[in-house]
Design a protein that fits this description.
The termini are far apart. A hairpin with a 5-residue loop joins strand 5 and strand 6. Helices cover 20% and strands 28% of the residues. It is of the alpha+beta class. The protein has four helices and eight strands; from the N terminus they run ββααααββββββ. The radius of gyration is 21 Å and the shape is elongated.
Length: 172
Amino acid sequence: MTVTEPQLSSAEVEPLVRGKTWEEMIPGSVFRTARRTITEADLVQFITWGGFNEPLFYDNSHASAGGYTGRLIPGAMIYCIAEGLILQTNVLNGTGLAFMHMELSVKRPVYVGDTLHALVRTTESRASSKPGRGVVTAHVSVRNQRDEEVLVFTPVRLIRGADYVEPEVTRS
């Protein structure tokens, strides 16, 4: 005999993954992302998609003449990979509202075949001018497989608070 369960609405079921609220992002707290190895395909797709028409990224002899020892990865790509690794942790899943600002510094070259991860440290967390939201600043250190810092950025994000209220949706 089959038992029929009552139909649940999505609103009645808690999500399996929920990002942290700004109040949960305590200054000094640190986490590490998963690792990701950068492939030749990654580089070609990124420079083609982004229009990075610079010989450093597609001409081995040009990169060698500049003192580089492999296929160089653009700093913008390193940042994008690190930001993706952060998002894959689900720390902002359903709580992130806006990316407001950042400063970025490239520290050393990254090459095809390097494996990257990020260490994310919350440096500031405060209420915003609107209720239910906060502003969180972090220090992100992107590291290679030798744990050498290759890029640093400091994102400032608007994050939902524990008391965030969804705005009413009006339909036309």
